[in-house]
Structures are given as C-alpha cells and as structure tokens.
Amino acid sequence: MIDPPRTIVHREWTVYEGKPWLTVTRSQITTPDGLDRTHHAIRLNTVTTVIAVDEHHRALLMRRHRWIVDSIGLESPGGILDPCEDPLSGARRELLEETGFEVDRLTLVADLEPMPGLVQTRHLIYVGSDPCQIAAPTDAEESAQLLWVPLGETADLLSKGQLLGTGTAVGMLAAAALVAGDSGTQSPGQQFVTVPEPN
Q: What's CA 62's distance to the chain center, in Å?
C-alpha cells in the first residue's frame, strides 16, 4: 500500500506548558497540497481507562459532573499515566483509586488517538473481568456515584450523550462486542454501588 502525502513540520515550539496536564505547541508546516501555514497542537500525556465487567455483563461506571462541558454523565475509571508508569499498572491504580475495585484480568481493547487533527492524547482502553470491591475510593477529587450499567444499554446511552469521553464510549462498545455471543446471562438493570466509608 502506498503511503498518503505527508505534512512536513519545519519547526515546532512550546507556547504554553501546564505540567503535568498539557502542553500547547505551535508549528510551521507545509500541508500535502503545498500550503505553508502555522498550526497549533495540544499535547497530553497517555491516558488509561478501564471498563470493569461483572458476571451479569454490567460495567462499573462513575456518574459524575464534568464542569468543563457542564454535563452529568457516565464515565469509566481512568486517568493520566505517571511518568515511566507501566500502562497496565496505571490502569489498575486508577481503577482502585477511583472506585475501590480490582479486576482479575485486563485486556487491551483499543490503542487510539481520539482527536489527531488537533490533540495528541494516546488512550489505552482496557476491559477488566471479575471486578471485586476491596476498599473505598481514595481519590476525593474524582469522587462520583458508582453504578453497574448493563452493556446492552450502550447504544442508547451513546445516542443520548450519556457516556462521557472517547475512552468510555469505545470501551463500552468493545466490552459489549466481547460479550455479545454470550446470550445465556440476563443482565439486571442499572444499580448503584454501595461504597464503604474511607478509613
């Protein structure tokens, strides 16, 4: 297969650095059609997210408010990897911090860039099996209501804008596809999770 025409980057410099969250860069480029332009890019660290699925084909999601888009919706546990952190370890850490749950096994279902035309933010999306609550959530900033959400509701939740973020949407679709062949389990409806008090 022949590669498509490439954009040539002549020079790039940082215009804003907001460690550890993001860097904004500005570049002098030549587009494939020969046009010289200046273009900005937002560069974020790698993100991991986990869809923890129970024996009833339900995902453990957080119901929370995101002030930047002023929206309440459902989101999978996840966050930014620490420097030099192994992605699997980071995914497990985020799940435990935000929900108090651990999973038996993690399977990578997506490695993607959700907005490659403007934002560099690699997303590693995992599906976890056999979730078990072992503690109270420890990340107070990420506090939210925890719910078991049937994977069969994914398409409806997507159409209503209830799944927040690309990682959540892609993870739910992947998890639903993984269990689609198992029709023997009847999934109960949405259910809040009782969270133990922090020690």
A: 12
Q: What's the pLDDT at 97? A: 94
pLDDT at 195: 75
Distance of CA 67 to the CA centre of its chain: 17
Is 136 in contact with 100 (CB distance < 8 Å)?
Answer: yes
Q: pTM for the whole thing? A: 0.88
Q: Which of 62, 121, 123, 56 is nearest to 95 (CA)?
A: 62
* Nearest of 197, 156, 187 to residue 74 by alpha carbon: 156
